[in-house]
Design goal:
- A hairpin with a 2-residue loop joins strand 6 and strand 7.
- The radius of gyration is 22 Å and the shape is elongated.
- Helix 1 crosses helix 6.
- Strands 1, 2, 5, 6, 7, 8 and 19 form a seven-stranded mixed β-sheet that branches. Strands 10-17-11-12-13 form a five-stranded parallel β-sheet, with helices on one face.
- The protein folds into two domains: about 180 residues, FAD/NAD(P)-binding domain (3-Layer(bba) Sandwich), CATH 3.50.50.60; about 120 residues, FAD/NAD(P)-binding domain (3-Layer(bba) Sandwich), CATH 3.50.50.
- The longest helix has 26 residues.
- The chain is built from six helices and 19 strands.
- By secondary structure, the chain is α/β, with parallel strands linked by helices.
- The structure holds NADPH dihydro-nicotinamide-adenine-dinucleotide phosphate.
- The site of NADPH dihydro-nicotinamide-adenine-dinucleotide phosphate has 21 residues, from helix 4.
Length: about 300
């Protein structure tokens, strides 16, 4: 362990990148630690249609590149490492990662969330062999094929419209009798001839030899089970927070981090921003806003602490 950072941001999605821009711009010595690569869930989102300033929409990948460029302009530093643990000793935090330890006066956790699994037989076995969690990444592999999209939220309905550009047929399978997705997205799929809906239905099993060939579907209204021939299954049923390394006292019942409106957690100097936060609206715009707010709060905390440390 050598240098002490003012601020370490864990996670490099929109919340982390916005924090980095604000913190570096304000002159704090800042580092982003990121497990895989910068961008978070944005990089696998086809089109972000509601980020203010991009009236024609923008691909998630492009928006991430813009944000990374912007963060670099203010001297962003980032390293790849998986955080295993955070401890607070006196006035500093020690972050233990897969590689080494880091020290910082304040921390912003902006680790976002990962996709939820169906947890049915065949899902793991056929992952990347017909089972996918990312329409943008895998959609083009299903040209002229028949596919299922599982889920009833904004992601499932939006990505079904994207997948309909490639696939012969897209059936959205949802466990309830109506979607949770917003009307504007449903209106879009309503207009597509090759998209249809299978309500009140759950996947019991995904079957095949070397790749997905069929799915056992149960109608939860009639209890009828039938086997449907299918080439691909896109599981788009929501997200889970990346908080495995976070002290349980900071989490809500669903493992999201509880903060106040200043992005402060129960531990002084430890902040959270973006999708990892409890009770938030999980949108890129909100994550970026959280990031800015967390950086501002962290800055005030650091200034106060430095006043104490160097008095
Ligand atoms: P959501 O949590 O909103 O929806 C998940 C969907 O999957 C629900 O319909 C849920 O069913 C279903 N589901 C959950 N678990 C299972 C299971 N085990 N088996 C079958 N079905 C299951 O997740 P999304 O990813 O759709 O959205 C996440 C957030 O991102 C939301 O806030 C959304 O608004 C936002 N978003 C916004 C977009 C935009 O363009 N504005 C685009 C994409 C996402 P049930 O309804 O029964 O609970």
């Amino acid at each position: 362990m050598s240098e002490i950072y003012d601020l370490i941001i864990i996670g490099g999605g929109p919340a982390g990148l916005a924090s980095s821009i604000y913190a570096n711009r304000a002159g704090y010595k800042t580092l982003i630690l990121e497990k895989i690569g910068l961008g978070g869930q944005m990089i696998i989102t086809d089109v972000i249609d509601n980020y203010p300033g991009f009236s024609q929409g923008i691909s998630g990948y492009e928006l991430h590149l813009n944000m990374v460029d912007h963060a670099k302009r203010y001297g962003m530093q980032n390293e790849s490492a998986e955080v295993k643990n955070i401890t607070k000793t006196d006035k500093k935090f020690v972050i233990t990662t897969s590689e080494k330890e880091y020290e910082a006066l304040a921390i912003i956790i902006a680790t976002g969330a990962k996709h939820r699994n169906l947890d049915v037989p065949g899902e793991k076995e056929f992952s990347a062999k017909g089972v996918s969690y990312c329409a943008t990444c895998d959609g083009p592999f299903f040209r002229d094929r028949d596919i299922f999209v599982i889920g009833g939220g904004d992601t499932a309905v939006m990505e079904a419209a994207f997948l309909a550009k490639f696939a012969k047929t897209v059936r959205i399978v949802h466990r309830k009798d109506r979607f949770r997705a917003v009307k504007a997205l449903i209106d879009q799929t309503d207009r597509l001839k090759n998209v249809s809906y299978v309500f009140n239905s759950v996947v019991m099993e995904i079957k095949g030899k070397d790749k997905v060939e069929s799915v056992l579907l149960k109608n939860v209204a009639t209890n009828q089970i039938k086997e449907e021939k299918i080439d691909g299954v896109f599981v788009l049923i929501g997200i889970l927070p990346n908080t495995d390394f976070v002290d349980k006292v900071l989490l809500d019942a669903n493992n999201y981090i509880i903060t106040d409106q200043h992005m402060k957690t129960k531990i002084e100097g430890l902040f959270a921003a973006g999708d990892v936060r409890s009770d938030t609206f999980r949108q890129v715009i909100c994550a970026a806003g959280d990031g800015a707010r967390a950086a501002e709060s962290a800055g005030k905390y650091i200034d106060e602490l430095k006043g104490i440390l160097y008095k």
